[in-house]
Specification:
Elements (H helix, E strand, L loop, with lengths): L7 H26 L4 E2 L3 E6 L3 H4 L6 E11 L3 E8 H12 L10 H26 L3 E3 L3 E6 H5 L1 H6 L5 E11 L2 E11 L1 H10 L4
Antiparallel strand pairs: 1-7, 2-7, 3-4, 3-5, 3-6, 4-8, 7-8
Helix pairs in contact: 1-4
């Protein structure tokens, strides 16, 4: 099963998963910051993995990628990707600073990893609740590079992967600050069909 032969029911279930996961992520971010964070209705895409960079602005767009390995009842990779300007905006939301064009320091990168960890945990919690599956994620690994290079990390590290990716495009707002975040769920080949079965739409 892959992105090409999915039924409308399967797409609807995955979109619902994206909506619930994004809502939980916003709630977690609000609690972390002690501020009200809102979001637009997320756009959920199911597409070929090799085309994911097009949604992110092209293979040469500079992004921050926070990467996790997913293990348990299903296995695969999770990535939370933000354009570099959204990374700065997110840090400003968290720290109340004025980071405009400066370099990212060690504390900044650590804060981004922690936020990525909280958001990814929210999505995986939603997935576990919907499917009844036991899923664990690794500690986060962060990279700043062009989208094409960041997306190649799981392929280089793990080789064979599924050809489908669930990409959830979310826009967060806190006051006048806007952050665009992209959550990618990339199940391994054998896990995609298992995921569909657990969601009741195999």
């Amino acid at each position: 099963m892959n992105y090409e032969n999915m039924s409308s029911m399967q797409m609807d279930v995955l979109k619902e998963l994206g909506n619930i996961g994004a809502g939980n992520a916003v709630t977690a971010l609000s609690k972390m910051m002690g501020k009200k964070v809102t979001m637009e209705v997320p756009r959920v895409h199911v597409l070929e993995f090799t085309k994911a960079s097009e949604i992110l602005g092209g293979a040469e767009a500079e992004v921050t990628g926070i990467y996790f390995r997913m293990e348990g009842d299903i296995s695969g990779n999770i990535m939370f990707l933000l354009p570099v300007d959204s990374s700065r905006a997110l840090l400003n939301m968290i720290m109340g600073g004025l980071m405009d064009t400066g370099e990212f320091g060690e504390m900044d990168l650590s804060a981004l990893e922690e936020v990525g960890n909280i958001l990814a945990g929210s999505y995986i919690s939603s997935l576990s609740t919907m499917t009844g599956m036991d899923i664990k994620i690794s500690v986060p690994a962060l990279a700043m590079d062009m989208a094409g290079a960041v997306l190649s990390v799981p392929i280089i590290q793990f080789g064979r992967m599924g050809d489908s990716v669930l990409l959830i495009e979310t826009h967060f707002f806190e006051g006048n600050t806007h952050v665009k975040g992209n959550f990618l769920l990339i199940p391994d080949v054998e896990s995609f069909a298992n995921l569909m079965k657990k969601l009741g739409v195999s």
